[in-house]
Design a protein that fits this description.
2 copies of one chain form a homodimer. The first copy, chain A, contains 13 helices and 13 strands. By secondary structure, the first copy, chain A, is α/β, with parallel strands linked by helices. Chain A folds into 2 domains: 2-169, 3-Layer(aba) Sandwich (Rossmann fold), CATH 3.40.50; 173-355, Dehydroquinate synthase-like, alpha domain (Up-down Bundle), CATH 1.20.1090. In chain A, α6 runs parallel beside α10 and α9 crosses α12 (310-317).
Chain lengths: 357, 357
């Protein structure tokens, strides 16, 4: 087992990474202060791992909430189901919420914990590659709004993140690839050494070789923990983690939540950001090819959906959280391994990227 | 004009109290960082004061959201209307939300500000006595759930609180009395000198004498600011502010939100807490009479609704936010002017209070 720490003063917390961790109650129990828990999961993950998690919680008053599976259920209405279950089960301020599942479960579980009786403790137990390397770490929680991804939410940190790498064995191939999009992101924005490692080990990752996956998870979480510790509420560098996300969120919102997986949209969005960076003269044609190829090797889409017009893209992007006083900032690539947040891009060059679909 | 400060380190903020403050843009504008605002109000208050507030915001991109009036609209669904309006108007992370109205508008506006894009700045502009002396100060925001008052929310502090005492001229008598319930509370839990002043000045307050009302507001806010600064997230003494609220919330939830005003339920709830304190031997029969009489002088109800059974009371109270690990703590009166939070009360004595309706 490996341990990382997200360093946030009195809100610091550990990330545990390794096989078989769901069977180690000693990792979870120190973070449960009260006498009750609620475990939030979904209909895909609960049959696989709920019993295992509950076995760690003996002697407590426990209840479970099973949500429908998918991004399209990441709504205020479904969030309200969590609140209702918690009230029915008389959860109180000392109840600990465990979020067992992928990014949707983690984001909604975390937001429910942030809001229930104005805040209860919670623990992230991610079971998808994407949530292990990205969404379970750093305290961004929330739900979607029909008009935009993750528009309603809170910064709210968990007590700990428990990553049992064994759970990846039940992850389907499409979800594995989606997770790799966020892994590749870390290399592109600020870790050229890791980017190099990824180009050499992509086949091992796609073949689910344990050591390769474990290393990729550890290195990704290390990157994420460092950035979050430096800029918890995204006043600056944390925005770099959103490489490809402004384009990607427009795809997810425009195509209907869940039709494109988040990681798929991020892969295509990152290629679009790389194209704009190329149009700005920052990336060479070879660099742009490199970016496309690494996503293609991870079996991810690199072309935006033909049905989404440039105007629709612009409309969705104008509601991005990186808009300030009407000006949209984008994360671009100054070079491979160096992301930059800028509002100083050529609008014509952006338009060119959006129109060539 | 008088100024108080809620002392919370880098989240400290001023409370301005006085007549004519809605016409002083220099008070609000220093707290607006971006170039846009959204003012949330309701259909009763907006026709009276929206224009006046908007005149302070010239040169900014402003939009308004007008909610239906009443506690029964303090829901997740109505909250979602605020989010939709903000997205339609392309509000971003630098938008400032102004909450113009009573407690419902302030609680929902504040919670919307806490959650919109994971947090935007907000300003409280309370227009009812109750919201001036209590809910606009201290950062408790949220909405009700069918199963319990204020069950969903956040601790989220405003940038400033602007109390224009002139707005009380449009408040109806029932709302004025409801506000006095929270004013009396401050005296009962920890300010015997103020309690004495209140007994002598209740007729002046009921007659809306300006000096008396201003003093009552100032003194109440001073009490509130002190308690919040010492215990922002209600780990201890802040709970004393909830004298009468556990019984009161049960009445509000049990009778249907809005049928009893919050202040009316708090008045009756406080009398019930005083009865239990009397049953415990802490208050004399005279003390109990004193508590009843001061609420009666403020034209407030002191008898719980006959239609709410003791069992129903217990059911609602069991979901109170002061339940920890299944044990309900109550705020009682050790003596007049001294509140105490305790779980060490006699359940039989509580039952007796609930059954004598």
């Amino acid at each position: 087992m490996q341990t990382l720490t997200v360093d946030l003063g009195d809100r610091s917390y550990p990330i545990y990474i390794g096989p078989g961790l769901l069977s180690k109650p000693e990792l979870i129990t120190p973070f449960i202060k009260g006498k009750s828990t609620v475990t939030v999961s979904n209909e895909t993950v609960a049959p696989l791992y709920m019993d295992k998690v509950q076995q760690n919680l003996q002697g407590l008053k426990n209840c479970q909430v099973t949500l429908p599976d998918g991004e399209k259920f990441k709504t205020l209405e479904v969030l309200d189901q969590i609140f209702s279950s918690m009230l029915e089960n008389q959860c109180d301020r000392r109840t600990t919420l465990l979020a067992l599942g992928g990014g949707v479960v983690g984001d909604m579980g975390g937001f429910a914990a942030a809001c229930y009786q104005r805040g209860v403790n919670f623990i992230q137990i991610p079971t998808t590659l994407l949530s292990m390397v990205d969404s379970s770490v750093g305290g961004k929680t929330g739900v979607n709004h029909p008009m935009g991804k993750n528009m309603i939410g809170a910064f709210y940190q968990p007590q700990c993140v428990l990553i049992d790498t064994d759970t990846l064995s039940t992850l389907d191939d499409r979800e594995l690839s989606a997770g790799l999009a966020e892994v590749i992101k870390y290399g592109l924005i600020g870790d050229p050494e890791f980017l190099d490692w990824l180009t050499k080990n992509m086949s091992a990752l796609m073949a689910r070789e344990t050591d390769a996956l474990s290393y990729a998870i550890y290195r990704s979480c290390q990157n994420k923990a460092r950035v979050v510790a430096a800029d918890e509420r995204e006043a600056g560098q944390r925005a770099l983690l959103n490489l490809g996300h402004t384009f990607g969120h427009a795809i997810e919102t425009g195509m209907g939540y869940g039709n494109w997986l988040h990681g798929e949209a991020v892969a295509t969005g990152t290629v679009m950001a790389a194209e704009l960076s190329h149009n700005m003269g920052w990336l060479s044609a070879d660099d742009l090819e490199f970016v496309k190829n690494i996503f293609l090797k991870a079996n991810l889409p690199v072309e935006p959906p033909a049905s989404l017009s440039a105007d629709e893209f612009m409309q969705h992007m104008s509601r991005d959280k990186k808009v300030q006083d009407g000006v949209l900032s984008l994360v671009l690539l100054r070079q491979l391994g160096e992301g930059v947040l800028t509002s100083d891009y050529d609008p014509q060059a952006l338009r060119a990227v959006l129109e060539r679909q």
